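Checklist before submission:
- one chain only
- standard amino acids only
- sequence pasted in full

Submission:
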Amino acid sequence: MRKYLAVDYEFCTGCHTCEIVCQQEHGLAPDRFGIRLTQIGPDQLDERRWQYEFVPVPTDRCDRCAHRQAAGKAPSCVQHCQAGCLHYGTLEELGAKVDKRKVALFT
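Returned file contents:
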């Protein structure tokens, strides 16, 4: 059954832990990423509202930690996410966990 990486970006704090553990897990250089944190804003939408969010986005180097999955473990970024905003599983599993307002799914 196909599994997905879901990012509930409403709660991402921008700590960069996902980037760092991915680099360590795969032996990537500091300028190479399996997952990359992007920043939206700060952007003033109107007089009272701002948008300022962080979104972890897997790159083409991301293999969802295939070696960890084979051992029955979650991808490293999911295991170490301090905000608990990264989730991994089937669509059914993820549907029960995440708030659908601000979620990005990656295959």
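Reviewer check: The chain is about 25% helix and 30% strand.
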